[in-house]
Queue: 3 jobs
Job 1
Amino acid sequence: MTDFPSPSGRSKTAKSPAFALFRPVLFAIGAIGLALGGLVLTHRSNPEIAALPTAPPQAAPPAPSPPVASPPVVLADPEPAPPVSSAELKGFQMKPADQIAEPEPPASDRYELTLRLERGDTIEKMLADIDVPEADRKQIAEKLQGLLKKKKLAIGETIELLMQTLPDQPDAPRVLTLSVRPQPEREFIISRQDDGTYAAEEKIYKVSPRIVRVEGERSGSLEQSGMRAGAPSPAMTEFVRALSYDVDFQRELKQGQKFTVLLEQLVTSDGRVTHPGRLLAGELRLLKRTVTVIRFRPQGGAEGFYSAQGESVVRSFLRTPMDASKITSHFGMREHPILGFSALHAGVDFAAPPGTPILAAGTGKVVMAGPNGGYGNYVKLQHTSDVATAYAHMSRVGPGIKPGVSVRQGQVIGFVGTTGLSTGPHLHYEFIRGGRQVNPLAQKFAMRAAVGGKDAARFQGLARQYLTQMKSAPVVANAKPTKPKEPAAPQIAKGD
Ligand SMILES: [Zn+2]
């Protein structure tokens, strides 16, 4: 995708009107785009929430079929999305460079959000950071406290949120459900009722675990490939997220690469699978390396994913700052320039369907948000006095993202689009160190923690066991073979 190449000697953050003069000159030809509309989107509903007797997400007012957000429909047995056919990748047309408008995605979006509880954090503070209205966050925090009684959530605990933004209140997102699972057999769920109040529920799992493995080959997105092979969507989402800190999903992944995930299913005494499989470990074979992630809970700490060597996968910056589960195809540089960092292109590009959530690569403050010449809709984050990141060509900026506000790593700061000098939906991502764009792929990012002390022996034992089981555990029976579906109508990207 052609996007705005860095004119030599000129700052890419230029805002002056002279900037616009470059546009016709720099408008180069390149046409692609991903035509993966809402029909191809992976289904990501949570089967646990599906079992909720009170106010499941679908009880909320119906959204006008958002193209991107997870479908609100709750299914116990998620059906994998169809594979991406080559037909869907055709059908792109050119448009003049100055025509930057594109259809507004519907503002009433549902989307999933995963946040981690940081040191000194509270649920209320976390919800305030993502602009949940005060009355709602007070209620949610209170309800959750009621469930937790005197117990505290561990630092690093994962909070799963199903969010919704309404057209008339784009900056005040609603929490439809909040769920946290401090123990495998215990889940706390707070869900929004029709009348706008919140209900609390504790779910106890009286079941026994069974370890199975799923093996697959990447074809389309990694998440879809895993689901086709029989892995549940939430486990694949977790796998993709755990990899996103380290793996560049655009440049390192190729079709046909093999992966294995090890799952812990929960099975009742009469053999009913009550949980399709929680990710215990996973392995992805890239071109030059194999990336392994292993779930582990250090003593007194929160559960997280670690490398086989016991290093936390969590880094100070995400290598792939977007919902990587939506990245479906690798584009060769010659045919479709999904550009990497070079003298003429001071960032890296990630192609993804329009509306794919773009995530803050690291924790920081918004310094710019809005239209910015050839960059289109643009967000710049300052992380330290020295390091900033920038995100361009968004269809729109995320809810509540404006200069001065703080963002968390992994927070949605915008949605993939093709505004500005862009030939199709993609994210142009820049990593800025000391005021200059540097190659984000060449940066070494600090890791958060490593397994140590008393945990080391237990981790090593577990890692060995999982690595063996990834080769020997029973292969999951794929309950639902992929049915060929009506191919999705190719979406014409109006990129220039
Ligand atoms: Zn670019």
Job 2
Amino acid sequence: MTAWHVRGVVLPDDEVRDLWLVGDRVTYEPVAGATTIADGGFVLPGLVDAHCHIGIAPGGAPIGSLDQARELAAVDRDAGVLAIRDAGSPYPYPELDDEPGLPRLARAGRHVAPPRRYLRDIGVEVAAADVPATVTAQARAGNGWVKLVGDWIERDAGDLAPAWDDATLAAAVDAAHAAGARIAVHTFSESAVETMVRAGVDSVEHGTGLSLDLIDVMARQGTALVPTMINIATFGNIADRARDKFPGYAKHMLALRDGFPDVVRAAYEAGVPVYVGTDAGGGISHGLAAREMLLLHERAGMPAADVLRAASWGARDWLGFPGLVEGGLADLVVYPGDPRRDLRVVEAPQRIVLRGRIVR
Ligand SMILES: [Zn+2]
């Protein structure tokens, strides 16, 4: 079996260490005959995009083939993203879970969404009575996660509104947990997120409507936040397109966008586990994890070391992919400089190894 040797500063620790990759495993026990593939630099167990869609093609339609999913995931991989949480896919691709050339996958099934309100052809659209059974079915379609659309525009009201009543939103959480899955909820508004956090959802996606009180509840419960700041920055375009027909909605979206860096900063400061997600797929390109990291640092004030944890070892722990520990998984990226001193180095990995195979 091929063995690789890597020497460098293994983050988050400060010391220079030697590690070996044998097959898909990491060891700190020297392996005779290993080839040195990196000497010097700063070593991380690979980046994680914790909110990504490789089942949605550029433009917003479902992908048409497994090969298209492979292509999109490869763009992330080549940017150093070695694990992805797919936050909802209209195209099932369980075949790719263990594909050697692709990032490790934590997947939801299809988005569970309210009828005739959500993005066309993306979600399973169901009335309140069918939500729990649909969540159960989508838990089986995924490999550990369910994605719920907690709110969206309600055209009659001309503004964001919860997808279903409170009891149904809470029942969705219970159904996911009963099926052994974790549940991630899309929320932009102030109302749906309150219900979902109090019902014990595992992660809040976007979370523009979070209040300080709710942030405290999340911190106490350990509820994660995946802010997708790249997505929230596009709210101006959404507002522009909607303004003629839905002026109240347009105004609301801009207010949520403008307040968002402070929401993320407050969540970080309160101790909410924050993770890096780009929301790639549809209108957002793949391969932008580094940009999201820089936004968390520059706009939300997260220190570089904590952004790195949110984008790497912390997110891997959260998703169940062991990092650079004895017996961990053979995924790593090497950067030429210390990303804690200058986070911009994450834009250009020097070496990428995924599942023990050299990507770069
Ligand atoms: Zn998304």
Job 3
Amino acid sequence: MEERCLCESNEILIFSCAGSSNVGQIANQAAVRLAQQGMGRYFCLAGIGGHVSGMIESTKAGKMLVAIDGCPVGCAKKTLEHTGFTIHEYVQVTEFGIEKNHEFSLASSDVGKVAQHIESQISKRRGLL
Ligand code: SF4
């Protein structure tokens, strides 16, 4: 893979499936937390799925794409890949042993586990670890 400088956090684009389940919403909250921590820009997956030209162009300008899916159905991954994008860091919330359900009582600690994992992966790529 081409090595590119990742000096600017706004060159790191974070997508989440934001699905209608606990794990989809954990993915969403983890992406929000990462953006609040300055790890990257949280970007609109729906804009990619809708082929919104400005969002496609902005995504092309990103140097690192991060995707967080709730479960193995992998909607964020599929949406980005169908549009021709390469994902550099990827995780599914269910990989952390969190079972999918359709209740929305999210544990902050679960959001933290996912966000910390991605933070660590981004930091490694940026040479900060
Ligand atoms: S990846 Fe899973 S949780 Fe996320 S939108 Fe798709 S089916 Fe829903």
